Amino acid sequence: MGLKNLFRIVVVALVTSTLGLPAKAQRHSNRGEHVAGRFDYYQLVLSWSPTHCEDNSRGRNDTQCGRNRSRPFALVLHGLWPQYEIGYPESCRTRSKPFVPNNVINGMMDIMPSRGLIIHEYRKHGTCSGYNASDYFKASRILFNKVKIPKRYQTPTRAFLLRPEDLVRDFEEANPKIGAGMIQIVCKRGNKNQLKEVRVCFDKKGKFRRCSGRSTRHQCARKNMYIPPVRISG
Question: Which residues contact residue 223 at a Cβ distance below 8 angstroms, ignoring those fewer than 6 apart?
């Protein structure tokens, strides 16, 4: 199912279910009262795998970081997060238990190489999208594929330094539809100012849009950012 049709089906259902609610209630439920499908936009969160693996490798058989992984990973999908203009919903109630079938998990492992992460992301964020697990991850892949990764960030075998704004510019040049304020960069805490995540914002129809909340300059220091290389060996 294409992005346009997939989003149209869910958007129509959600709009119908929220017609009787005041605008404030539709957008900003109180903490603990988040309702599936009631949010303002999406953040597609891409994780820099080498940074993650520095602290989170679970041994030889780790599917993302271990020696037996399928390939060296650079930017991988961390998740697709429904967002409010201020804040975000999480762990929304669903009619049935938020179960992710094995075929859905296996179908995402090439871009999201952690079974535990896939399950966690649906329970915490996917339940608030209004999608079932299958459609949530279909939408996640569609939006992931809309973002062209610049060549220098695909499989770098050597570490390098650059300013956060240079990374943003690289993505804007590779993706002409990404404009100012549509990307946020997150760095790992500590002295290295090390790349952790690239977040790209979309509206509920799957089009690029500006991100709300903190701007890039508050996510990473303005100095050079450290980008570790992909893991060629274990």
Answer: 163, 193
| Among 90, 121, 165, 173, the one annotated catalytic | 121
- Contact between 163 and 223 under an 8 Å Cβ cutoff? The reply is yes
96 located within any domain: yes
- Classified as helix, coil or strand, 78 is strand
Residue ranges of the chain with per-residue pLDDT less than 50: 1, 11-27, 29-31, 216-218
In this predicted structure, what is the pLDDT of residue 66? 82
Alpha helical stretches, state H, 71-215 = 102-108, 115-124, 133-146, 164-174
Report pLDDT for 78.
98
Measured in degrees and rounded to the nearest 5, phi and psi for residue 75 equal -85, 120
Task: Please classify residue 38 by burial: count the beta carbons closer than 10 Å to its beta carbon, then call 0-12 exposed, 13-18 middle and 19+ buried.
Answer: buried
Domain count, the chain: 1
The mean pLDDT of the chain is 85
Q: Does residue 125 have an active-site annotation? A: yes
* Two structure tokens written together for 104: 């859905």
User: Does 78 qualify as catalytic in the annotation?
Assistant: yes
Q: CA 137 from chain center: how many Å?
A: 11
- How far is residue 216's CA from residue 209's CA, in Å, rounded to a whole number? 15
The one catalytic residue among 34, 52, 125, 197: 125
Question: Considering the domain boundaries, does residue 79 fall inside one?
Answer: yes
Q: Is 120 a catalytic residue?
A: no
Distances from the Cα of 180 to the Cαs of 27, 63, 85, 184, 208, in angstroms? 24, 35, 17, 10, 11
CATH number at residue 61: 3.90.730.10
